[in-house]
Amino acid sequence: MADIRHEIPADRAGRSGPDSGGKHKGGGMAHSGLKSFAGLMARQGILVAFVLFLIAFSVFSDRFLSAENIFSVVRSSAIIGVMALGVTVVVIGGNLDLSVGSMLSFSTVLVVDLHDKIGPGPAIVVTVLATLCLGAINGLLVGVARLNSLIVTLGMLSAIQGLTLIYSGGKNVDIVHQDTTWFKIFGRGYIADIPVPIVIFAICAIVLHVVMAYTPFGRRIYATGGNPTAAVFSGIRRSRVVFATYLISALTVAIAAIVLGSRVMGSQNNVGQGYELQVLAGVILGGTSLLGGSGTIWKSVIGVLILGFIQNGLLLLGFEYYVQWLVTWVVIILAVWLDIAAKRGRLLSPIA
Amino acid sequence: MSASHIPQPDTPALRLEGIVKTFPGVRALDDVGFDVRAGEVHALLGENGAGKSTLMKVLAGMYEPDEGSIYIEGEAVTMRSPLEAKARGVVLIHQELSLAEEMSVAENIYLGELPRKSLGRVDWKTLHSNAQAILDRLKCGFDSKRQVGTLSIANQQMVEIARALTVEAKVVVFDEPTASLTDAEKVVLFDIINDLKARGAGIVYISHRMDEIFTLADRISVLRDGGYRGTLIKSETNEDEVIQLMIGRALDLTRRRAAAKTGKVALQVEGLSCGKLFEDVSFELREGEVLGFYGLVGAGRTEIAETLFGLRKPSAGRILIDGTEVEISSPADAIKKGISLVPESRKEQGLVLGMNCRDNITLPQVGDLTKGPFVSDGAEIAIFDRYYEALKIKTPSWRQAVGNLSGGNQQKIVIGKWLAMNPRILIVDEPTRGIDVGSKSEIHDLIRTLAGEGYAVIVISSEMPEVMHVSDRIVAMFHGRIMRSFTTEEVTEDNLVAAISGIETDKVA
Amino acid sequence: MSHSVLKSPLGWLAGNPIWGFIALIFIFFSFANPYFFALQNFQNILVQTSTIGVIALGMTLVMINGNIDLSVGAVVALAASLCVDIQGWSLFADWGNWAILPGVVAALLAGTALGALNGLIVWKTGVDAFIVTLGAMLGVRGLVFVYTKEQSFFAMNFSFSDFGSSSIGPIPTLAALFLICTAIVHFVLSRTVHGRNTYAVGGNRSAAVNAGIRVGPHMMINFMIVGFLAALAGVTLSSQMGAATPNLGTNYELWVITSVVLGGTKLKGGAGTITGTLGGVLAIGILRNGMNLMQVPAFYVLVILGSILIAVLLLDKQLNRKGKEELRL
């Protein structure tokens, strides 16, 4: 499905492409000024939008820019944020992962349920391993068997949902002694006055950013997503790379589940339902192309934070909770539209 | 530059004047002008990258020229889309098929113009009777209800041709139409072309094949480096003159390079087969030697290269490197064994277009360029710089995305990427396809230099001058088999052409 | 598969393996459960599948085009809410049973309009349909919650819910409606110019453009059709329940896409049939119904369905292998 999009006719691709590395051989000054603005919007449009949002909200609400409010937004974005990091890796590798939402339900139910049965430490270990197994199934089917990732992870979404319900028997789970367990630190603790979920989010973001930007492994993921055929022709073992991206995605889900379980100290069977959308929205807002091969971890962080701040800002302004979904709708489409419009050099698609 | 010195009695079916088309960094067409008369076959010749395909796309309305005019039967026209071109009576038979495989032959022929009945229904009766009439005229042996995806490539091409015949075409452009046809199918095609000619259409016939051109054409126009180089009348010219016009100099086949000093056998292939793609292929390659593989598209040359690079599993035969039998299970494995492949299609197989120049060059070895767990920036830039200078790559910086470079520089990046692996055996598939002449000769020189340095090199090419120029020995392939192997002393244009056309050269010689 | 084989029944089955699968599970459940093989139960299956089925018809067109519509579930909820809410407006208090009409009309219009909006955005912006409808999936659902204030609506007019459980002779009305829609969409896809162009646009987009097919408006029409059908599903669903909840239609996009893919429509576009989709829908319907009768917990059904979807994909991959000669990429 994803191979017919964004075709740029050869004669237009270079003529007005904004991203020519800042090197303009000819061209008037005024023209290049305009061009570099377009270039800025194309490269950093998401940041510009973010700043505009912050300014707009802070004008209309005094509380918006308070440290307390900002912490609370970041903390509440942390769970979706951590998952978005993993999904970003998968998407850069050229695939999708729609199963993260139901995987989150599964892992949260698992870690909370096992907490009282085998203790927090073993519960965490078992949860991480079990979640990695689910990721490995995704990885085998998409990476090794080369099945369409959209359908595979759609199928896994349904299957894992069932698995969760089978495990829990349809009952919600919770932790009995909430105050005495050290497990509470992940969701409710503080390190140097910073909420632990934020710390975990930040650490995950930094680690994955370093992996993606500075290691050979990260480079191979970009190459595989950018041009799988050329990657294979370059001696990259594509199956392994794709497999690994799904393991990473599963790992971030497991981490998110631990934070969520610790914060709520209980879990419903469908706690992660719909999260895959929020996560994907954050990733797309961050400018990661669903075609693969481009995108960065830190921009996904911004994408998720934008969603968080929109949500928070709209609430502070007195809108109903669900208005944020409407706004997200518009924002996602605008973000992607502007991105590809900048690349093709014209606003509207050339489709007749 | 005069288009033709022949007096023109009547209005030509098609007339081009001063056509200019530029792409970033390339002047693809530079002041091209000639005319095509009604009822003539006008061959258009030029090496790869000479501008033929761009000109063709201008004719078909896929590109708008920057300058110049197009006249159809004396009337100036602008054509902004293939549809508009077709309405003007100009149709293009694509080299790449543009068919919807799940649909029937008739639906493909009348795509976009399906006859209607009430309720928006397709008038199947009219559709199939009209389509069948065209198929019959083309002497096609298949039914108009047949699903296109189930047809052979040659028959699919017939569907393309049939599609062009739904209008009363004034100008029909054939782009390498015989590339995938058998001899029998070619005869049918030539009949069709002669039939169209008799009906008064002007035919533009683009091909590489001298024999076809001298069979079919009335006049021959030549493009080189995007410029028009003249028109020759078939009856008054010969192949040498055409070739000379095409490559800008006399093809000097008398001057042979002295055979290079070659070392020991680096690669030995014995009875290698891969299903029906190629069968029973045996050859050896020495250090310091350039072995040319020449043949038509689909003769199995690329598939051999892919097998040697671990991309295909051979069904029979042995591969020996330095006398030891090896099994090459993947490209990573091939790289470990010292084999590099510069693939046929740089955009699809060679490069990650969105990545920068440096990262593309270091991609196969990025795992080794590390400091601790991280990629070493310095080591990467050092490698880039080495090949940036050695290959004279033109790019503002290593940060440039390779997608923004010209074809020649992209190709140099791919070559650099594989040289950087320091291979023992270097396979180059179509090293100069679609790049300008300057870069071409640079790449040829480079290949010779590499051989001089002791690399064992295989060059696969569809361009005869190229193969003859760079190779120490030439292997001619036809339908998945090696027909004959030539030394530089033995090879002539004639026996090479004969060998790749499946003619037993021994009988000819 | 070759052309001549297509004409034999066995060859037809090879092209539409889903019907073979249906026969298998049909026979299995007939023997495994005494309640399965009964007219009453067949009626049930048809009614149960009609909601997903109606949407799947439209989704087939959109997917043959090479697009996808993830917003159908949310459209179901919006249409249901509009339909039930509007028929209860005091404005129509003395319209009697006719009060249902404006509700239905508004629901269908809303669905068609949202489809048009999706299609227009895909056409004009060139943004991938996946992203456009992903956004709409979230946005339209938000719209439903805002509109309903997170409340359920109940139909006060019993004729409305009676309609949902009525029958025309032995055939439940909703099942009949589904079958009629199936026939119409099948006709459109296989017999009309628009339908044939649907294959052309999905199969070879540049060829379609070159042939002068206006790809943008064409795709928009198909988005409108799926929007309309999703809204219709919302109306029939609310009529079955006599109510509309804002969470209605959650996960429907998954069920619908699963059915369509099971029916042999390719995600890449260009291939697929309504008979295949009907098979996909029935297969899922029979599976759910049969497992339900055998008292398999609903949880297992989810796992089985997910597994079947993936298994079909694996099978398809194996069948389409080019043999040992192919490039190892």
How would you characterize this protein structure?
The complex is a heterotrimer of chains A (352), B (509) and C (329). With 352 residues, chain A is mostly helical. In chain A, 70% of the residues lie in helices and 2% in strands. Chain A has helices at 10-13, 29-60, 67-92, 100-118, 120-144, 149-168, 185-188, 196-214, 216-226, 228-233, 238-264, 275-285, 297-316, 323-344, and strands at 173-174, 190-191, 194-195, 266-267. The radius of gyration of chain A is 21 Å and the shape is globular. Chain A starts with 9 loop residues before the first helix and ends in an 8-residue tail after the last helix. With 509 residues, chain B is an alpha/beta fold. Chain B has 3 domains: 14-247, P-loop containing nucleotide triphosphate hydrolases (Rossmann fold), CATH 3.40.50.300; 252-338 and 423-509, Rossmann fold (3-Layer(aba) Sandwich), CATH 3.40.50.300; 350-422, no CATH class. Chain B is built from 18 helices and 23 strands. Residues 1-8, 251-256 and 505-509 of chain B have low confidence and may be disordered. Chain C starts with 8 loop residues before the first helix and ends in a 10-residue tail after the last helix.
Strand order of the largest sheet of chain A: 1-4
From the helix content, strand content and strand pairing of chain C, which structural class follows?
mainly alpha
How many β-strands of chain C, per DSSP?
4
> Can you count the helices of chain C?
14
User: How many strands, which pairing sense, and closed or not: the largest β-sheet of chain C?
Assistant: 2 strands, antiparallel
Cα separation of the termini of chain C: 25 Å
User: What is the spatial order of strands in the main beta sheet of chain C?
Assistant: 1-4
Low-confidence stretches of chain C: 1-6
Could you tell me the radius of gyration of chain A in angstroms? 21 Å
Number of domains of chain A: 1
Question: In CATH terms, what is the architecture of chain A?
Answer: Orthogonal Bundle
By CATH, the topology of chain A is: ABC transporter involved in vitamin B12 uptake, BtuC
Which stretches of chain A are poorly predicted, pLDDT < 50 over at least 5 residues?
A: 1-31
Tally of helical segments of chain A: 14
Termini distance of chain A?
Answer: 20 Å
The global form of chain C is globular
